[in-house]
Specification:
Butyryl-CoA Dehydrogenase, subunit A, domain 2; alpha+beta; AcylCoA_DH/ox_N_sf; 23 helices; flavin adenine dinucleotide binding; oxidoreductase; Butyryl-Coa Dehydrogenase, subunit A, domain 1; 643 residues; 4-stranded mixed beta sheet; 4-stranded antiparallel beta sheet; 4 domains
Length: 643
């Protein structure tokens, strides 16, 4: 028995096949966002706004009150930032109030909160300290509880979930030093040996890994007699012999997170700890992320609310040229953007979360859009706050406090939010993932036409199927409710939102026509047009956010909760969003994509290397990617369990 000593070598096509095999193939439930990309505005899928049950609301509100008291009295966000560590007593306190078990069923000792209230709790905790939000999210959104909830056996749930609910912190380990969003090259191995598997490999950026008691580890099982093989998921005890946390990583933001490098050397894991069958690891990971990604929008909602509060208070106190800062149009536009976008992000997050709770719709696209849109817009809001604060926005809270001013950590929130555009699927990867799902209907009927491995007979059959599909679909993209002047009239009150809903309907059809035209034009080369696909996805994200904002405004109006103000914010957001949409449509066909590719070739071939003259490079020595050869660790174990 020996561990592999080199990474699998795979072609681009093989890597795509691995990713394709891992995605959920069927659409058993309706999807609002999928329909949106197909030119069908199914408002009935999200309106009236879905609601939690009274029992779920009561349970959620009771915990939020307890959590609020805890973070207000026990959490010092400035201390966590200063010392780059969440104090052990804070982690212990979180365990005691049940924060580790928010999403775990009550029968396993958890709180049994809905996704809606789980995200509200993350918003609240993250506003006190983003590092605490990440700790709780990494543990429950992608750590041991969620995969076991979806794919675990009854015995596994009985063994592990009570521990996760009250005492044990968990982490999710997929990324490796040379493997990020391309899991086909995963090198960590799990070799069957009797009733065990033996794990070898190195995992990078293991959030919670430094303090975790339980791990979800993705490793490759080689195909052999009696073993299907493939990337497989395991629950691993962190105190198992052969596990070494070799480094606690430090970052530009989220300074308090316990993120590390974990090495496995001949680690024995019982076969009973395998989650699902061999080869199901990536599918488990992707399915877990469908709802797991919703924790990131929750953190962005927290950031937006705080940015709005600081922008309001500061812009009233600070005067320039004889009047408050907010009354200058250049600053006022930024405040309006922050307010309207915060409203929309909360609308998107609550809607997607409630849809996840109902389990009536397939939300794989909605969850991905929420993550993509919130991470991008959250960053922009924080950047605008720093600009509004001016020099004080660039100054640290500690420095502000030292010279006698309010310690506002504007620069910190900018640093803390930056990672959201990268982890749990970078913006670039999210664009490709969503684009693949958005064109699934087309590939289902016409994919064989552009597949070079398909026979002429298969292509002929696909051509016939495509003809039937498009004969029915294309005529429906010509006209719709968006062209009727009085449609969506129930959204017309003090402020009229019905024009925005008509715009969404018309634009959805335009988006579908643009996608079809591009597929007809580029066919098999469509997957290489990443700039085009990104803009298609961004348009869809704006339309989804506009839909959520309008539905939330109407919901708040019917509930008697700030309905007039909600309509005003929804109107402002939709008007801002429509400008972005029109710009994106213009850039679908008028852009520098082709020229950019030529410049990139020149850069990579050294043609423009002269442009780098006149500087010194302050980077240190060392390889670009650390060596991750399997073997025993030569470093001290910095694992620090919290007891």
């Amino acid at each position: 028995m020996s561990a592999p000593t080199s990474k699998p070598t795979v072609t681009e096509r093989e890597a795509r096949q691995v990713a394709e095999a891992a995605r959920e193939q069927d659409w058993r439930k309706p999807s609002f966002a999928k329909e949106l990309f197909l030119g069908r505005f199914r408002l009935d899928l999200i309106h009236p706004h879905p609601m939690p049950t009274d029992e779920a609301t009561q349970r959620g509100e009771e915990f939020l009150a307890k959590l609020r008291d805890f973070v207000e009295t026990k959490v010092d966000g400035a201390l966590i930032e200063r010392e780059a560590r969440i104090p052990d007593e804070v982690m212990t306190g979180l365990k005691e109030i049940g924060a580790l078990g928010m999403k775990i069923e009550t029968k396993y000792g958890g709180l049994g909160l809905t996704q809606v209230y789980y995200n509200k709790a993350l918003t609240l905790a993250g506003s006190a300290s983003p590092a605490i939000g990440v700790l709780l999210s990494a543990h429950q959104s992608i750590g041991v509880p969620q995969p076991l909830k979806l794919f675990g056996t009854a015995e596994q749930k009985e063994r592990f979930l009570p521990r996760c609910a009250r005492t044990d912190i968990s982490a999710f380990l997929l990324t490796e030093p040379d493997v990020g969003s391309d899991p086909a090259r995963l090198a960590a191995s799990a070799v069957p040996d009797g009733d065990d598997y033996v794990l070898d490999g190195v995992k990078l950026w293991t959030t919670n890994g430094v303090v975790a008691d339980l791990l979800v580890v993705m490793a490759r099982v080689r195909k052999s007699e009696g073993h299907k093989g493939g990337i497989t998921a395991f629950v691993v005890e962190t105190n198992s012999p052969g596990i070494t946390v070799e480094n606690r990583n430090a970052f530009m933001g989220l300074r308090g997170i316990e993120n590390g490098v974990t090495r496995f050397h001949q680690v024995r894991v019982p076969a009973a700890n395998r989650i699902g069958p061999e080869g199901a690891g990536l599918k488990i990971a992707l399915t877990t992320l469908n709802t797991g990604r919703l924790s990131l929008p929750a953190s962005c909602v927290a950031a937006g609310k705080w940015c709005l509060k600081i922008a309001r208070e500061w812009s009233a106190a600070r005067e320039q040229w004889g009047k408050p800062l907010a009354h200058h149009e250049a600053v006022g536009a930024k405040i309006s953007f922050i307010a309207a976008t915060t409203f929309a992000l909360e609308a998107v997050t609550d809607l997607a979360s409630q849809m996840a709770d109902e389990d009536r719709n397939d939300i794989r696209i909605e969850g991905a859009l929420a993550k993509l849109y919130a991470s991008e817009m959250g960053w922009l809001m924080a950047d605008e706050l720093v600009q509004i604060r001016g020099g004080r926005g660039f100054e640290t809270a500690e420095s502000l406090r030292a010279r006698g001013e309010r310690a506002v950590p504007a620069e910190q929130i900018l640093r803390d939010l930056r990672i959201n555009r990268i982890f749990e699927g970078s913006t670039e990867i999210m664009h490709l993932l969503i684009a693949r799902e958005a064109v699934d209907a087309h590939l289902s009927v016409a994919g064989d036409l552009i597949d070079p491995d398909k026979s002429l007979q298969d292509k002929a059959k696909a051509g016939a199927n495509a003809g039937v599909f498009y004969a029915k679909w294309l005529p429906k993209l010509v006209a719709g409710q968006g062209q009727l002047p009085y449609s969506f009239g129930t959204f017309k009150h003090d402020v009229d939102l019905s024009p925005h809903l008509r715009y969404i309907e018309r634009t959805s059809r335009k988006l579908a026509r643009s996608t079809f035209y591009a597929m007809s034009r580029w066919q098999g080369r469509m997957e290489t047009k990443q700039g085009f696909l990104s803009r298609i996805v961004d348009i869809g994200a704006e339309l989804f956010a506009m839909s959520a904002a309008c539905v939330r405004a109407e919901h708040l109006r019917t509930q008697g909760e700030h309905g007039r103000e909600a309509y005003q914010l929804a109107d402002a957001f939709c008007r801002q969003s429509r400008l972005r949409v029109e710009e994106l449509f213009g850039r679908l066909w008028t852009n520098t994509d082709e020229l950019d590719r030529k410049v990139v070739k020149g850069v990579m071939s050294g043609t423009y290397e002269w442009l780098e003259d006149g500087i010194v490079d302050p980077s240190g020595e060392g390889p670009w990617i650390a060596d991750a050869t399997p073997g025993p660790s030569e470093r001290e174990n910095v694992h620090r369990p919290i007891r």
